[in-house]
Amino acid sequence: MTTSxxxxxxxxxxxxxxxxxxxxxxxxxxxxxxxxxxQKLSFTxxxxxxxxxxxxxxxxxxxxxxxxxxxxxxPGRRDAMYAGEHINITENRAVLHTALRRPESDTLEVDxxxxxxxxxATLAKVYAFxxxxxxxxxxxxxxxxxxxxxxxxxxxSDLGPxxxxxxxxxxxxxGLECSFISNIDPTAVAEKVPGLDPETTxxxxxxxxxxxxxxxxxARVAREWLLSSLRExxxxxxxxxxxxxxxxxxxxxxxxxxxxxxxxxxxxxxxFWDWVGxxxxxxxxxxxxxxxxxxxxxxxxxxxxxxxxxxHFRTAPLAQNVPxxxxxxxxxxxxxxxxxxxxxxxxxxxxxxxxAYLQQxxxxxxxxxxxxxxxxxxxxxGEIFWGExxxxxxxxxxxxxxxxxxxxxxxFIAMANPAHPVRDGEQDVHExxxxxxxxxxxxxxxxxxxxxxxxxxxxxxxxxxRVFPGNRPTxxxxxxxxxxxxxxxxxxxxxxxxxxxxxxxxxxxxDQWGVELGxxxxxxxxxxxxxxxxxxxxxxxxxxxxxxxxxxxxx
Length: 555
Description:
The strands form four sheets. Strands 1-2-15-12-10-11 form a six-stranded mixed β-sheet, with helices on both faces. Strands 6-5-7-8-9 form a five-stranded parallel β-sheet, sandwiched between helices. α7 packs antiparallel against α15 and α12 crosses α13. By secondary structure, the protein is α/β, with parallel strands linked by helices. It starts with 10 loop residues before the first helix and ends with a helix. 46% of the residues lie in helices and 12% in strands. It contains 22 helices and 15 strands.
């Protein structure tokens, strides 16, 4: 599995280059010439309706993109992933986030282990614990039931749970809420912990190795707050501190020795595996906080949504395979049309953290300059993902997308049924909201010509400022409602899009060596910041100057 096909040497890449040279995008003309364009370029994946027709895509380009997927062996690599082969080359690991949501009746033998059985054993343990907390069987050290769950993690141990907690807000159990601490910035703990009731708070420390600097620092600070707050309230009289920690802390980790040393009962540690990358782990035990707040039934529906998209990606022909087509469209936009960023614009306030979640998924996965065989990449890789919910974004950055000099492909996401139906007199507010969703993609695609501007009686000198060039590519994704299953489908959709792009570029989308260097340097620099002269002298001139400036400014 170490051979990497250079996409730029394929006949499909040459064909795409030729199509790009001869391409004169004109979505107005394309739709007029082909009344069935929207129908031909709309697809169904699980419960999602996906319309690609407003992209800068011709039949020839689409066919060449599909041929490119064949020539770089996207199907073969996909099948290897599902089979548990070690496609994470630099870490010599399988890539099996799809196993996290396979039915219990499945069997998948990887490195001599039935991973599906392992997954469901862990799920059963998580679900049993979740039910104990939800029902009040699990109680704090003073005998009170838990009302607040605090997830302490960072990266994939935070972004996924936070995003899903917000996305599925209507499904939360009344009387139970979550808070999330990730940043090592003291502000994160200082502003979230003091308002909590130590007698009814449960901390989940999420760190696979139980050694992540930010997570363990925050966990120790939280432990100290818990114990000091309980002592001040007189709640620890006749009790050991270790008893309080054991009742108010659990872990998501496989490092049971470190978990025990912290004071957490290893029986209350929920594990996951090295074939699950952090950014792919929200549907593993990393989602324990979600299983508690939403309940096992909702979490199981969430996993079923993932699996439905997994099956579509695994079985649908390439030309009708939505994750494949969207991944290939991103290749077209980045490598041929010159796009450097990608906007994700959910028209659902509950998805307000979705773009942040995708930033880690996509940019940590595909922000690479070396291919999996160790050779330099032969084309641009990755794009900057960003976005905010509509309609807020319309009043902020849409100006740049509509009339700026940069090409910014955008994904518009909406749901047909709102979580909270509201009327403003006779007006269905959700329909007004979706009118904006529809209007923006139409405006980006078709623009407004000089003739149309003049026909409105616009003064000649300001006509150019009111022209919209159009031909700005967008994809529309429409779901029935933001249910647990649909949220799972959306996450899996983008996981597989990211996979397809990585395979085309020949990069290992499942390692993340780029995050390691800064971590190691921070540990080396920390003594210098604290006043160690020898450590300070070992730093570069700029770092030395900044540390000196910091120490002068610090009270």
